[in-house]
Amino acid sequence: MKKIILAGNAITADILLCYLAQDDRYQVLGLTVDDEFVLQGGIQGLDSIALSQLKNTCDPQEWAIIMAMGYNDINRSRESMFHRLKEMGYHIETYIHPDAKVYTQYPLGEGCVILPSAVIEPHVHLGANSMVWANTTLAHHSSVAENCWIASGAVISGQAEIGRNAFIGVNATIVNKVVVAEYSIIGAGALITKNTKASSVHLARSGEELRYSSQDYVKYFGV
Q: What is the DSSP code (8-state) at residue 209?
């Protein structure tokens, strides 16, 4: 049984803890967050450990990390924490829920999280530190780059490409061979039939582009 620290102490960590509590491969013994967030959030029964104190409490040779943070700032917060933990010497565990179906022959990226009923078909490439939520499909020959968030029910069709730090919303569909550029935000239920531009936002079911960049959209409206 692997000893695990969850990186995060908010709703994503709470959800992952529920899955991990039923998975006898893992034992979750704490949470870690940046120092300024130690007194925010939290999960009953688990200590939140300031990142600056983590190595003093949990030896990197004995403990592994599962990324349990949300998609704040178009996944930049997850990306930053991922790299800082690696620099501290921690192994970032790739977590595949037992009810997920993974058929690709390619190694999954370090630190990915794949939740129940997700299907990853043959010839899929999945980058490091990406979240693949429940009931999603990554179809044959598609690719998802690092630090992406693929929300529940999303379909990444065959040969589609998702750029780094993209957010794909609930029940969104990316059509075959379409390229979603880095830092794109694809809203819930959007149907994307054409390539997107970097940092673009597509919310309507028609996938029409908004006039805001994804950075400005997050700043003023959140995601």
A: B
